[in-house]
Amino acid sequence: MSTKRWAVTRYLFMEQLQLLWRTYAFILVAFVILPLLFAILTGNLSHYSFGSTLTDLGIGAVFGFFILVTMSLTYDNFKLFIQNGISRKTYCQAKVINLIGLSFGMEIISALYNFLVTAPARGHSGQAFLDTTVYSLYDHFLGTNLFVNILGYMAFNWIFFIGLGLTGMAIGSIFALLTKFARNIAIIAIPVLGFFLLVFLSNTSTSPSDYNLDGLVNFLKFLMGYHANAQPGYFNPTMPMLTMMVGCVIMGAIAYYFNQKLKLKK
């Protein structure tokens, strides 16, 4: 790794770490400390469970939202680096390296927290905890060895985190090229169009329609790893992981392309 790329990667990593611990500090205060103080002040301390509250924080979900949002913040760092002789290519590469490293470390912390804190606090075994996660569709496919299943769960989540981050980068790079007016229109239009699409799909799936979605449903089942007579827990995780990897490549390519178009604004 070149000196410039390493310097940019390190800067971005330290910046992300600062934002991350502040985010979790805010979550801790908002969902643990403040409810505790409220319970004390109202005399309902007996109804407050510190352990239950702490184990319900969902640090993995918080990180997923965090990485999507922070990786979409593009222009300010671009402006800083381009004014200090860092190329667009170096900035983009450093951002991806930072994303991969940060998401790997966060997935390890999240897994340790889930299996060493949350699962025991809820009285669940490791396998029982896996059965409550999104990965429950695949958590028996690799056999009965818990360690192997946990590794599969971690790999699945890691790829998902990377995909979220790259999606954020792609969105951020595109939005950074838009004028303020165009960004405001997009911020309003995209959720509205998404809502109407959800309504359309919901109405189509619950009422008679001229649209035949059997092909789409079968394709989605294929992407999810469903195979003949497979029960939840025995779906094949290979296909969804490959699908996410392809999505990562596409989002990364979009982010890189639009990142090269960034310009300093007057």
TrEMBL record:
Keywords for this protein: Membrane, Transmembrane, Transmembrane helix
Lineage top rank: taxon: Bacteria
TM spans (from-to): 21-45, 57-75, 96-116, 155-178, 185-202, 239-258
Protein name: ABC transporter permease
Species: Lactiplantibacillus songbeiensis
Lineage start: Bacteria, Bacillati, Bacillota, Bacilli, Lactobacillales
